[in-house]
Q: What sequence folds into this?
């Protein structure tokens, strides 16, 4: 893999970025973005020719890796044929993308409303649920992330919500199961599941069931920590929704399209929601695309009643062509199966072996190519390596760990006191093992901050 060096161009790219680009979630004067020269497969590189093994899949979205030739070719071919067209027309790429997605979603999620990304998918799913039920409230979990747009940021449970939370968005948060830091004082997965479901139902009862339109959950929460739900939990939520006439929304923006070793994480538990949001892995982010998969019942609500929502670029032909190529490549090349196998045979065992040797690792959890290491100061007390939502000096241990990863050529996905192992679904055994070896080195830095 050629990684040519051109430091002068890199400096120019960096200078233009710093002069004109306003970055997400950042204090603009305190960031130093890496100037990227290129990428291929599981790697990307800078203008000095340094390669990085992408254990972040960027924002956990390049599921088929960087620059997959079939998807690049599909975008080029679509651009030559028809670059863009308004969403009110039937377009081949749009129709085919919707068909391929509907074939893979669980149950009767047979209609697809396309958006530009995951946050807009969540916005529209919530709108559909409220219109379908005529109710105002939506329940979501504290440990969650659903996007940064108006409704999605209110649904989000992590601290990124705080500066934008108006307190008047009709959102009620609740505790989802997480045995390692159980809010229910549970000692087993069974207890955690039972108590979490009881807590959720109690919340609904005290809020007033007739006021609750929807419950939205990330099937497997992503940025919040990859907490795989205990057996029976999602089925229990489905039953609660059925009991009270509540729309069940599963957010598969990060967990979908092979990330957990299944096409959708819901497939692990045979649970069928009423609405399912997706984005990221649907086309590995090559062109912005997301959407809502809609059940027959909810679609029928808008059979003769207009749906009051739309986007100029809904079902953009370039994006949909890249989704068609991505889904077909994943099926033809066994990419979902590879993600499952890598998780079972390489990442899972390898990460658990690291936990045995590094006192900073409190817990390993995950599935497929979707894993998190909970880093702690003390395994006995489970004190996090850094405080919740730490910044500045308080976050120094995680900053040092992150710097050690990058210096060694590993690009991690780090959030609060966790590092996530979330490489592309296409990663090879040897690449995954290389990543584990680099992670092993970096964890020695985290170990220095343990009790």
A:
């Amino acid at each position: 893999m050629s990684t040519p060096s051109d430091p002068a161009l890199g400096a120019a790219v960096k200078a233009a970025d710093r002069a004109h680009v306003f970055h997400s979630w950042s204090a603009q004067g305190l960031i130093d973005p890496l100037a990227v020269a290129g990428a291929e497969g599981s790697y990307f590189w800078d203008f000095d020719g340094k390669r990085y093994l992408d254990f972040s899949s960027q924002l956990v979205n390049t599921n088929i890796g960087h620059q997959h030739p079939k998807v690049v070719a599909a975008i080029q071919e679509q651009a030559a044929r028809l670059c863009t067209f308004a969403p009110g027309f039937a377009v081949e790429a749009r129709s085919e993308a919707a068909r391929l997605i509907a074939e893979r979603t669980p149950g009767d999620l047979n209609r697809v409303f396309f958006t530009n990304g995951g946050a807009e998918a969540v916005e529209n799913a919530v709108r559909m649920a409220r219109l379908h039920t005529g109710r105002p409230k939506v329940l979501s979990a504290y440990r969650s992330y659903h996007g940064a747009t108006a409704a999605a940021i209110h649904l989000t449970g992590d601290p990124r919500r705080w500066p934008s939370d108006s307190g008047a968005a009709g959102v009620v948060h609740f505790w989802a199961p997480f045995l390692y830091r159980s809010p229910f004082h549970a000692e087993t997965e069974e207890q955690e599941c039972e108590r979490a479901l009881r807590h959720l139902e109690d919340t609904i009862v005290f809020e007033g069931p007739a006021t609750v339109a929807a419950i939205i959950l990330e099937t497997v929460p992503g940025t919040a920590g990859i907490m795989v739900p205990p057996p029976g939990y999602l089925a229990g939520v489905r039953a609660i929704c059925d009991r009270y006439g509540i729309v069940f929304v599963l957010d598969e923006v990060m967990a979908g399209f092979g990330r957990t070793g299944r096409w959708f994480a819901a497939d692990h538990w045979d649970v069928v929601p009423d609405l399912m949001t997706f984005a990221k892995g649907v086309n590995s982010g090559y062109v912005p695309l997301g959407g809502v998969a809609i059940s027959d019942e909810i679609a029928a609500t808008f059979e003769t009643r207009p749906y009051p929502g739309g986007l100029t670029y809904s079902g953009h032909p370039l994006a949909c062509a890249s989704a068609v190529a991505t889904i077909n490549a994943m099926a033809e090349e066994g990419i979902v199966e590879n993600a499952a196998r890598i998780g079972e045979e390489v990442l899972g065992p390898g990460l658990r072996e690291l936990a045995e040797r590094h006192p900073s690792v409190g817990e390993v959890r995950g599935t497929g190519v979707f894993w998190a290491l909970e880093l702690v100061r003390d395994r006995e007390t489970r004190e996090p390596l850094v405080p919740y939502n730490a910044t500045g000096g308080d976050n120094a241990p995680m900053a040092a760990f992150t710097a050690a990863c990058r210096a060694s050529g590993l690009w991690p996905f780090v959030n609060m006191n966790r590092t996530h192992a979330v490489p592309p679904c296409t990663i090879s055994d040897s690449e995954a093992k290389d990543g584990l070896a680099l992670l092993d080195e970096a964890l020695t830095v985290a170990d220095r901050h343990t009790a």
Notes: The mean pLDDT is 97.
